[in-house]
Design goal:
It contains 18 helices and 13 strands. By secondary structure, the protein is an alpha/beta fold. The longest helix has 17 residues, at 407-423. The termini are close together. The structure holds beta-D-galactopyranose.
């Protein structure tokens, strides 16, 4: 793996390499959403009205609230590039659980879309290493280069000066979504607990009060990896968590074992079925069937689609024990090698990377713009809090969403986590995690 070092350290490592101590706001911290510009300029460059032809865009934003952000982009694409025809190739399934296999087959069969969704960091490096995507430096330059995209985010999608995608958004993974009415009914404070143990004590109180599902989780393996990464971060702390992704790092440690025990404990308060993918697990909180759910902040779109109000109907906290850290992932869009309509693909990238596109998309998606010049004040309260955290807090990289671990490693972690869902064998989960790291983190 040519680029392993750069990948494995991830965004947090980039900050460290830049001489930043973390926790503060160093000059190189992605100054995401610092406010400032109030206009949302539309895309520049390219042929007037677009290159023409079909532009196939592959994502996993296919159903329910998941597709609402994409619909905003589609609308703008048709408005700004009327010569082009947007072809929606989305395949449903959270975190790309179905889409990634379809994409891999399409790429393998020389049937690429014009552009596909990929996570900044280790996952994107898979596509670069496999020679499946083209550099897009010209588009990034047109869009404003590192004066509008955080330099260290660009580093996660670059190799030897070539930039391989256009970042559309930044999501936060370590968020607990809370139904305050369920907590109040059980006499539990709606303030965030100080740490994981205090939160586990509240889960126990909810159970004792007769709530069947104190915390909801999906049966899809990735939703469990998502829950696990938050607990791993809480138990290890940010620096030790980040070190797990340095090449050759051992996962055979007491800290990982203890995180696995805490994860096992938390699962004793979770549903064992009844929710497949993330929307159903989030809806359990929305409907008052569960007190909590840990999910990325795309959950905002689900709450919005059910007309729920942040701060009253639902609350959001950093996973207890991870306050002060933003567990990071970023979606980005590629120019697929061998795309039939590369100029049309570039028009799509122009829109995705524009201030206009990022404002419209991120307000609805629950994420925050990757660009630094989209005014924070235009965003709802939850996203404003995420912007502040991203700007000021330490950064750690998500496993489940391709920032810290590439597709193969992520999938092997998913297999170990999935086995544990059934057999509850803690030692087995630890050895599965250790084997996955030993094999993939070279
Ligand atoms: C992530 C992706 C998000 C959201 C989520 C749930 O991997 O980055 O944008 O779509 O999956 O499907």
């Amino acid at each position: 793996m040519r680029f392993k070092t750069a990948i494995a350290v991830g965004l947090a490592g980039m900050l460290a390499l830049a001489g930043c101590s973390g926790g503060g706001t160093p000059a190189t911290t992605p100054a995401a959403n610092a406010g400032g510009a109030t206009t949302a300029a539309g895309p520049a460059g390219g042929a007037e009205g677009g290159a023409g032809g079909d532009v196939g865009v592959f994502t996993w934003w296919a159903e329910g609230s998941e597709k609402d952000g994409l619909a905003e982009l589609e609308k703008l694409f048709e408005q700004d590039f009327p010569n082009n025809t947007f072809v929606n190739l989305a395949v449903a399934g959270g975190a790309g659980s179905n889409a990634k296999a379809k994409l891999a087959a399409d790429l393998q069969n020389n049937n690429p879309p014009e552009s596909f969704q990929g996570h900044a960091g280790a996952e994107l490096m898979d596509y670069i290493d496999a020679d499946q995507i083209e550099p897009v430096n010209d588009i990034i330059d047109e869009l404003g280069g590192d004066s509008v995209f955080p330099k260290n985010l660009l580093d996660l999608i670059s190799v030897d000066g070539d930039i391989f995608s256009v970042p559309s958004n930044v999501h936060r993974s370590n968020v607990v979504w809370v139904n305050p009415a369920v907590l109040a009914e059980a006499g539990i404070s709606t303030d965030a607990p100080a740490d994981l143990d205090a939160w586990i004590a509240d889960l126990e109180k909810l159970k004792a009060a007769g709530v069947d599902t104190p915390i909801s989780v999906g049966t899809a393996a990735w939703t469990q990896v998502h829950l696990f990464e938050s607990i791993l971060l809480a138990e290890l702390g940010t620096d030790e968590y980040n070190k797990l992704f340095e090449p050759g790092a051992s996962w055979d440690t007491d800290a990982v074992k203890s995180a696995v025990s805490k994860y096992a404990k938390v699962l004793t308060y979770a549903n064992t079925g009844g929710a497949d993918d993330w929307p159903a697990a989030t809806v359990m909180v929305i409907d008052g069937k569960a007190g909590y759910n840990i999910m990325g902040d795309w959950a905002v779109a689900e709450f919005n689609s059910k007309n729920k109000t942040y701060g009253t109907d639902y609350l959001a906290w950093p996973t207890p024990g991870t306050d002060g850290t933003f567990l990071f992932l970023a979606d980005s869009f590629t120019l697929a090698k061998g795309a039939k309509n590369p100029e049309g693909a570039k028009d799509w990238l122009r829109l995705v990377g524009s201030a206009e596109g990022q404002k419209a998309f991120n307000i609805v998606k629950g994420s925050i713009p990757a660009r630094t010049d989209v005014a924070a004040g235009d965003f709802p309260e939850y996203q404003q809090s995420a912007m502040t955290s991203f700007k000021e807090d330490k950064i750690a990289s998500s496993i489940a969403h391709g920032a810290a671990a590439n597709n193969a490693w992520n999938s092997e972690i998913g297999t170990a986590i999935s086995k544990f869902w059934t057999d509850k064998d803690e030692a087995g989960l630890v050895s599965g995690l250790v084997a996955a790291a030993d094999k993939n983190n070279k």
